């Protein structure tokens, strides 16, 4: 079974993020869910973004991300939801030994952190018309998967963001079940 580091979205470490992690734990995986916001959660994406970008800033967020991974083995599957994708990508690039990565509801680009490490498969999931994913995110994801040489991009019908968090009104139970099934079939988790 795999060891997963799941980084939360911009609303914080919600019960919905914990519930998603529990789905992978139920399948036998070890899942770490560090709280990059140290207990704070937010009711809106703009409020969470203001906390991430203005209150904490890039240097503090990357330091918290690195601390979250510091005592974990290098052989991890990195998983991020929305904001967590950025920091998952950072760790894939900076910590040798990544087994794979899963990006949910966002996709970084090759320009963000340089070339994707060879041999590290990537799986990406997002809504086709999500303002934070959409066509640009899908194109970025396809470029990353091509650079990885292994992986898949799954684009689902819909326009909502954070559809995998069951505590939010944007939650889609059917699509989340499909996302979880596809992640569990992803080579690094089999």
Would you report the number of β strands?
6
Structural class: alpha/beta
Counting DSSP H or I runs of 4 or more residues, the number of helices is 6
Architecture in CATH? 3-Layer(aba) Sandwich
Shape verdict = globular
The sequence of SSEs as H and E is: EHEHEHEHEHEH
Mean pLDDT: 96
> For the record, what CATH class applies?
Alpha Beta
Q: What's the gyration radius in Å?
A: 15 Å
Taking the sheet with the most strands, its summary is: 6 strands, parallel
Quick take:
It contains six helices and six strands. The protein has 190 residues and is an alpha/beta fold. Residues 4-183 form the Dienelactone hydrolase domain.
Mind explaining what this structure looks like?
- It contains 6 helices and 6 strands, in the order βαβαβαβαβαβα.
- A 6-stranded parallel sheet has the order 2-1-3-4-5-6, with helices on both faces.
- The chain is 43% helix and 16% strand.
- It is α/β, with parallel strands linked by helices and 190 residues long.
- The N and C termini lie close together (7 Å).
- The chain has one domain: 3-Layer(aba) Sandwich (Rossmann fold), CATH 3.40.50.
- It is globular and about 40 Å long.
- Helix 3 links the parallel strand 3 and strand 4.
- Helix 2 runs parallel beside helix 3.
- The mean pLDDT is 96.
């Amino acid at each position: 079974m795999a060891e997963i580091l799941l980084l939360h979205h911009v609303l914080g470490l919600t019960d919905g993020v914990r519930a998603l992690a529990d789905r992978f734990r139920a399948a036998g995986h070890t899942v770490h869910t560090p709280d990059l916001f140290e207990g704070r959660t937010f009711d809106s994406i703009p409020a969470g973004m203001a906390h991430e970008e203005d209150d904490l800033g890039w240097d503090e967020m990357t330091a918290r991300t690195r601390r979250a991974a510091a005592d974990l083995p290098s052989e991890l599957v990195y998983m991020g939801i929305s904001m967590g994708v950025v920091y998952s990508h950072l760790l894939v690039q900076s910590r040798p030994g990544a087994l794979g990565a899963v990006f949910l509801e966002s996709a970084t680009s090759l320009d963000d952190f340089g070339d994707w490490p060879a041999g590290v498969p990537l799986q990406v999931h997002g809504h086709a018309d999500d303002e934070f994913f959409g066509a640009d995110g899908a194109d970025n994801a396809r470029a990353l998967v091509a650079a990885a040489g292994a992986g898949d991009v799954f684009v689902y019908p819909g326009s909502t963001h954070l559809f995998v968090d069951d505590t939010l009104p944007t939650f889609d139970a059917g699509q989340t079940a499909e996302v979880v099934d596809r992640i569990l079939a992803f080579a690094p988790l089999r």
